[in-house]
Amino acid sequence: MITKSIAAVIIGIVICAPASAQDYAIRLADYTNLRAGPSLNSDILAIAPPEAILEVHGARGHWLQIHYKGGDAWLADWVGFSRIEEEQAVDNCCFLGWPCAGEADWKSGYFGFQNQTCAHPGFVIDGSQTFVAQVRAALDLLRELAPQWYAYADRG
Predict the structure, then answer these.
(1) Which of 34, 63, 77, 136 has the fewest CB within 10 Å, making it most exposed?
(2) pLDDT tens for the 156 residues of the chain, in order
(3) Strands 53-60 and 71-76: what pairing?
(4) Looking at residue 92, what DSSP letter applies?
(5) Which residues partner with 118 through β-bridges?
(6) How far apart are CA 47 and CA 30, in angstroms?
(7) How far apart are CA 124 and CA 132, in angstroms?
């Protein structure tokens, strides 16, 4: 009986708390897909414009859950955005997935973001030599023909 009760509580927690609470706002850097669920396979509900401010109230994996038109929508956490705190945009490399370790790191991250020089590992491609060569050739072509989309993918 106790085992069943514990199992029911655990299942209830897992089902009722699919996204962790976040409660902050972000300002988008680029046009961004807002999706019906936390997946690239989910339907696109809308495309939010650059500078749109969205309220984040949860997360699941690498997806942010936001309020959208009275309901919820999801966006990938690897898209370009700035976190807004106290009505000020915090534009810093530290909000792009790298933790700031102190004041000096914070200042360096701020100027790096402003100058678009946030360090990141770039594209990491695993696979056979043929696969890696084909992906690199496709990325080179993307950089040549659509530099804005290459930059978008490179930030991720």
Answers:
(1) 136
(2) 565 555 444 444 444 444 445 578 887 888 899 999 999 999 999 998 887 888 888 889 889 999 888 889 999 988 888 777 654 444 566 555 555 666 666 677 766 666 666 655 566 787 899 998 998 899 889 889 988 888 777 765
(3) unpaired
(4) -
(5) none
(6) 10
(7) 9
